[in-house]
Protein backbone atom coordinates (compact mmCIF):
# COMPACT_ATOMS: atom_id res chain seq x y z
CA UNK A 1 0.00 0.00 0.00
CA UNK A 2 1.34 3.45 -0.92
CA UNK A 3 1.81 6.08 1.75
CA UNK A 4 -1.22 8.31 2.17
CA UNK A 5 -1.15 11.65 4.00
CA UNK A 6 -3.58 12.31 6.85
CA UNK A 7 -4.33 14.91 9.50
CA UNK A 8 -5.40 13.88 12.99
CA UNK A 9 -7.66 16.43 14.69
CA UNK A 10 -7.52 16.02 18.46
CA UNK A 11 -10.45 17.40 20.41
CA UNK A 12 -10.11 19.38 23.62
CA UNK A 13 -6.38 19.18 24.30
CA UNK A 14 -4.13 21.96 25.64
CA UNK A 15 -7.12 24.14 26.50
CA UNK A 16 -7.29 25.96 29.82
CA UNK A 17 -4.25 24.25 31.32
CA UNK A 18 -5.69 20.74 31.36
CA UNK A 19 -5.37 17.65 29.18
CA UNK A 20 -1.83 18.59 28.19
CA UNK A 21 -0.45 16.96 25.06
CA UNK A 22 2.97 18.47 24.31
CA UNK A 23 3.50 18.57 20.57
CA UNK A 24 7.06 17.16 20.75
CA UNK A 25 5.77 14.11 22.66
CA UNK A 26 2.88 13.76 20.23
CA UNK A 27 5.27 13.76 17.26
CA UNK A 28 7.51 11.20 18.96
CA UNK A 29 4.51 9.00 19.77
CA UNK A 30 3.33 8.92 16.14
CA UNK A 31 6.84 8.33 14.85
CA UNK A 32 7.10 5.43 17.32
CA UNK A 33 3.98 3.94 15.71
CA UNK A 34 5.83 3.89 12.38
CA UNK A 35 4.06 6.89 10.89
CA UNK A 36 6.14 9.14 8.64
CA UNK A 37 6.59 12.86 7.99
CA UNK A 38 4.97 13.69 11.33
CA UNK A 39 4.27 17.41 11.63
CA UNK A 40 2.27 19.30 14.25
CA UNK A 41 0.48 22.58 13.69
CA UNK A 42 -0.20 24.93 16.58
CA UNK A 43 -0.65 23.58 20.11
CA UNK A 44 -4.30 22.69 19.72
CA UNK A 45 -3.98 19.13 18.52
CA UNK A 46 -3.40 19.13 14.78
CA UNK A 47 -0.91 16.56 13.51
CA UNK A 48 -0.13 15.55 9.93
CA UNK A 49 1.45 12.21 9.08
CA UNK A 50 1.92 9.61 6.39
CA UNK A 51 0.74 6.01 6.73
CA UNK A 52 1.06 3.02 4.46
CA UNK A 53 -1.59 1.04 6.35
CA UNK A 54 -5.16 1.36 7.51
CA UNK A 55 -7.84 3.92 6.81
CA UNK A 56 -9.22 6.95 8.63
CA UNK A 57 -11.19 4.94 11.20
CA UNK A 58 -8.54 2.33 11.97
CA UNK A 59 -5.83 4.98 12.26
CA UNK A 60 -8.05 7.07 14.57
CA UNK A 61 -8.61 4.03 16.80
CA UNK A 62 -4.88 3.25 16.85
CA UNK A 63 -3.98 6.84 17.73
CA UNK A 64 -6.67 7.08 20.42
CA UNK A 65 -5.33 3.95 22.13
CA UNK A 66 -1.73 5.17 21.92
CA UNK A 67 -2.65 8.64 23.25
CA UNK A 68 -4.50 7.20 26.24
CA UNK A 69 -1.57 4.93 27.07
CA UNK A 70 0.95 7.78 26.69
CA UNK A 71 -0.91 10.60 28.45
CA UNK A 72 -3.26 8.77 30.81
CA UNK A 73 -6.54 10.19 29.51
CA UNK A 74 -8.80 9.55 26.55
CA UNK A 75 -8.70 11.91 23.59
CA UNK A 76 -11.47 12.06 21.02
CA UNK A 77 -9.99 12.54 17.59
CA UNK A 78 -10.73 12.32 13.90
CA UNK A 79 -8.35 11.32 11.12
CA UNK A 80 -8.99 12.74 7.65
CA UNK A 81 -6.98 12.39 4.46
CA UNK A 82 -5.77 15.19 2.19
CA UNK A 83 -8.44 14.62 -0.48
CA UNK A 84 -11.22 14.98 2.09
CA UNK A 85 -9.69 18.07 3.71
CA UNK A 86 -9.25 19.71 0.30
CA UNK A 87 -12.83 18.83 -0.71
CA UNK A 88 -14.18 20.41 2.51
CA UNK A 89 -12.25 23.62 1.83
CA UNK A 90 -13.37 23.74 -1.80
CA UNK A 91 -17.02 23.13 -0.88
CA UNK A 92 -17.21 26.03 1.57
CA UNK A 93 -20.56 27.77 0.98
CA UNK A 94 -19.26 31.10 2.33
CA UNK A 95 -16.84 33.50 0.58
CA UNK A 96 -13.76 32.32 2.51
CA UNK A 97 -11.31 34.48 0.53
CA UNK A 98 -13.23 37.62 1.50
CA UNK A 99 -13.41 36.79 5.24
CA UNK A 100 -10.96 36.83 8.11
CA UNK A 101 -9.96 33.38 9.33
CA UNK A 102 -11.59 34.03 12.71
CA UNK A 103 -14.97 34.63 11.04
CA UNK A 104 -15.28 31.20 9.45
CA UNK A 105 -15.13 27.85 11.24
CA UNK A 106 -15.53 24.24 10.26
CA UNK A 107 -16.76 21.58 12.67
CA UNK A 108 -15.67 18.13 11.57
CA UNK A 109 -17.89 15.21 12.63
CA UNK A 110 -17.15 11.53 12.97
CA UNK A 111 -20.20 10.68 10.87
CA UNK A 112 -22.85 12.20 8.64
CA UNK A 113 -25.03 15.01 9.93
CA UNK A 114 -28.33 16.05 8.44
CA UNK A 115 -30.57 19.08 8.73
CA UNK A 116 -33.00 17.24 11.02
CA UNK A 117 -30.39 17.26 13.80
CA UNK A 118 -30.44 21.08 13.76
CA UNK A 119 -34.11 21.67 12.88
CA UNK A 120 -34.99 23.07 16.32
CA UNK A 121 -32.55 25.97 15.89
CA UNK A 122 -34.20 29.14 14.62
CA UNK A 123 -31.44 30.22 12.26
CA UNK A 124 -33.10 33.56 11.54
CA UNK A 125 -32.77 34.45 15.22
CA UNK A 126 -28.98 34.31 14.95
CA UNK A 127 -28.46 36.43 11.83
CA UNK A 128 -26.06 37.65 10.56
CA UNK A 129 -24.44 34.44 11.85
CA UNK A 130 -25.19 31.41 9.68
CA UNK A 131 -24.30 27.76 9.28
CA UNK A 132 -24.43 25.27 6.44
CA UNK A 133 -23.91 21.51 6.41
CA UNK A 134 -21.52 19.59 4.21
CA UNK A 135 -19.98 16.11 4.04
CA UNK A 136 -19.47 15.28 7.74
CA UNK A 137 -18.90 19.00 8.43
CA UNK A 138 -20.68 22.12 9.52
CA UNK A 139 -19.53 25.50 8.21
CA UNK A 140 -20.13 28.42 10.59
CA UNK A 141 -19.97 32.06 9.60
CA UNK A 142 -19.54 34.15 12.76
CA UNK A 143 -18.66 37.75 11.76
CA UNK A 144 -17.57 38.71 15.30
CA UNK A 145 -15.57 35.50 15.84
CA UNK A 146 -16.39 32.28 17.62
CA UNK A 147 -15.81 33.67 21.12
CA UNK A 148 -18.73 36.07 20.70
CA UNK A 149 -20.93 33.78 18.62
CA UNK A 150 -24.37 32.98 20.02
CA UNK A 151 -24.94 30.56 17.16
CA UNK A 152 -21.62 28.83 17.82
CA UNK A 153 -22.65 28.38 21.45
CA UNK A 154 -26.04 26.96 20.43
CA UNK A 155 -24.43 24.58 17.92
CA UNK A 156 -22.08 23.30 20.62
CA UNK A 157 -24.89 21.93 22.78
CA UNK A 158 -24.33 18.23 23.52
CA UNK A 159 -27.79 17.27 22.26
CA UNK A 160 -26.87 18.44 18.75
CA UNK A 161 -23.68 16.39 18.58
CA UNK A 162 -24.94 13.35 20.48
CA UNK A 163 -23.32 10.14 19.30
CA UNK A 164 -20.64 11.92 17.29
CA UNK A 165 -17.14 13.20 17.81
CA UNK A 166 -17.11 16.87 16.81
CA UNK A 167 -14.12 19.19 16.70
CA UNK A 168 -13.89 22.70 15.24
CA UNK A 169 -11.13 24.61 13.48
CA UNK A 170 -11.00 28.20 12.24
CA UNK A 171 -10.52 28.81 8.54
CA UNK A 172 -6.81 29.58 8.89
CA UNK A 173 -6.28 26.11 10.37
CA UNK A 174 -8.55 24.46 7.79
CA UNK A 175 -6.46 26.01 5.01
CA UNK A 176 -3.15 25.17 6.66
CA UNK A 177 -4.11 21.51 7.13
CA UNK A 178 -4.93 21.26 3.42
CA UNK A 179 -1.51 22.70 2.65
CA UNK A 180 0.36 20.49 5.13
CA UNK A 181 -1.31 17.29 3.95
CA UNK A 182 -0.37 18.17 0.39
CA UNK A 183 3.34 18.35 1.22
CA UNK A 184 4.11 16.02 4.13
CA UNK A 185 6.79 17.13 6.58
CA UNK A 186 6.56 20.78 5.41
CA UNK A 187 5.35 22.30 8.66
CA UNK A 188 7.69 20.76 11.19
UniProtKB/TrEMBL annotation:
<dbReference type="InterPro" id="IPR012545">
    <property type="entry name" value="DUF1697"/>
</dbReference>
<dbReference type="Pfam" id="PF08002">
    <property type="entry name" value="DUF1697"/>
</dbReference>
<protein>
    <submittedName>
        <fullName>DUF1697 domain-containing protein</fullName>
    </submittedName>
</protein>
Amino acid sequence: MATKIYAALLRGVNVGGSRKVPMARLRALLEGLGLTGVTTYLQSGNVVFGADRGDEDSLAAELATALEQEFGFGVDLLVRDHAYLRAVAEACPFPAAALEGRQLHVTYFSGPVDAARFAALDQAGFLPEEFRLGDRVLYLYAPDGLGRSRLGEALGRPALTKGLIATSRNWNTVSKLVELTETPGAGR
